Amino acid sequence: MEKRNYKIVVSGAATMGHCCSAIETVARIIGKQVAEHDCILVTGATTGVPYYAALGCNEAGGFNIGFSPAATENSHLKSYKLPVKPFDVMVYTGADYVGRNVIMTKCADGVIVACGRMGTMHEFATAFETKKPLAVLEGTGGFADKAKLVSTGPCRGIKNIIYEKDPHKIVEKLIRLIDQEKKKNGKVDIGQ
């Protein structure tokens, strides 16, 4: 398998009461798939879906980066009450949730949405507007189950969006879409 090191954001609900009953397992599977495909997991360094995706990534020997809304570790832990583990690297943005969402999403090569609420919708919209390859895991509840309706409404089309129901397949499908995007962009290796 070709080593890509693509940065894949997993966006989803921090509070999972409205998600499907298997959301913890689903998020772990996605994180594991990111690691097994030699990609870097990127999340919002929060609880819920991002947390369980990071756990799955770690369990598979992968590497993940958390983008915190806080300016410092102290603020991350005490003001926002967010975990620092299992994130391998923490980027303290100091940009609150809205700014963090934009910074995190724009650094990605692709974005996966599982369940989600308003923050996930914001990350989806940021990825959509910046033409990032997107994958939505349908059947996980919350925003993920409304994304198709939102993106096919009075928008500019549904380019670069995959809708998938299997968490074991979503990462591979997103990677293929990222590969197409990189090829279209004329990706050049600096070392050559």
Textual characterization of the structure:
It is built from seven helices and seven strands. Strand 5, helix 5 (118-129) and strand 6 (134-137) form a beta-alpha-beta unit. The longest helix is centred in the last third of the chain and has 15 residues, at 170-184. The two termini are 21 Å apart. The protein has helices at residues 23-36, 49-59, 73-78, 96-106, 118-129, 147-151, 170-184, and strands spanning 7-12, 40-43, 63-68, 89-92, 110-114, 134-137, 161-164. 46% of the residues are buried. The protein is 39% helix and 17% strand.
Topology:
Blueprint: E1 7-12, H1 23-36, E2 40-43, H2 49-59, E3 63-68, H3 73-78, E4 89-92, H4 96-106, E5 110-114, H5 118-129, E6 134-137, H6 147-151, E7 161-164, H7 170-184
Parallel strand pairs: 1-2, 1-5, 2-3, 3-4, 5-6, 6-7
Number of domains: 1
Please, what is the average pLDDT?
A: 93
> How many DSSP helices?
7
Which H/E pattern describes the elements? EHEHEHEHEHEHEH
**Biggest sheet: strands side by side, in what order?**
4-3-2-1-5-6-7
> Terminal Cα separation, in Å?
21 Å
Beta-strand residue percentage: 15-25%
Q: Which percent range fits the helix content?
A: 25-40%
| Main β-sheet description | 7 strands, parallel
What is the global morphology?
Answer: globular
* CATH hierarchy, class: Alpha Beta
Number of strands: 7
Residue stretches low in confidence (pLDDT < 50, at least 5 long) are none
Rg (C-alpha, Å): 15 Å
Classification by helices and strands: alpha/beta
CATH architecture: 3-Layer(aba) Sandwich
CATH topology: Rossmann fold
